[in-house]
Amino acid sequence: MTDQDVEETDTTPTIPTRSQQPPAAMPASSPSSSSEDAARARALLIPVADPSAPAATPDVAPVLPGRPSAARPRVNGPNAEPADETGPPCPWCSTGNRPDRHFCRRCAMSLTDRTNVPDAPRPWWRRMWWGAGERPAPWAGDRPGLRRGIGQIFRWIAWALALGLVVFALFNVDTAWNAARDHFAKRAQVSPDSMAASRSFKDHDPQKAFDKISNSWWGPGISGDAEGEWIEARFSEPTRLLDLMITSGISSRSTDLTEAALPHRIDAVITGADGKKFTRQIVLDQMSGAQRRKFRVGEVSNVRFIIRSAYGAGDKKQVSIAEIEFFRRSTSNDV
Asked: Exposed site from 138, 256, 268, 269, fewest CB < 10 Å?
């Protein structure tokens, strides 16, 4: 390089200039490029079904939207198993439980169906309903079936009978109360105020049968079985009679048993305080001494004893009754 070349060197920075080239001409659009642009534009549009075209059948039928349901709660077992829980296993999760438990300590299910556990005694008010409440309870959401059939008919009949008994008891509570008092009450002897008979043997009038002396007697004065003959006790005030005691024959001694005919069947015609009459049949044994019979007839005004048959009747014997005694409720029971 020469000195002349150094002098001619310019230190001013130079700025590049844009080349002044003519703009390139746009290529002419070809038919293929225009069709591609039209297809791209149609793809951006929302498709609309052609109304003239037949509707296409979907492959899957439309269904309603599902109903949301809450998830079933999860049962978390205890973290530690107690050492004393060594009883029979749960029928659902096989976890041991004490015999006094009613629900499983792990899964909280009922333990009523577990095996190898003795049944606890049921209370009396559950035993009297013929197995009511023994059927298993339905699960939550299960509707029990309707009770129709012969068993339901029998159940309604049983309830109707029970209701009838309750109504009957309400209307007869006074009778039941008096019957209970008569059963537990002490007895006291009562004598009739007057006596009468169809006929009487000489010196053996009907008073002899109510004088509380066993060696005096009443007889109709005719031989045979004396069917239809009667002796009557009358009370001036209605009296509630509970028991009756009759001594057959002419005395209470066994040596006098064959001296007279003994009454066998007797009809007791009872007249109540309201005037109504009803009959009780009394059957006596062929024995000496007093024979006691239950005679709960309520409030009565008189009692007529009609002889129907006799033991040992004969042409030379007459039916004899040594004593007839009545017993009522003692006044000490009212204190």
From this structure: 138
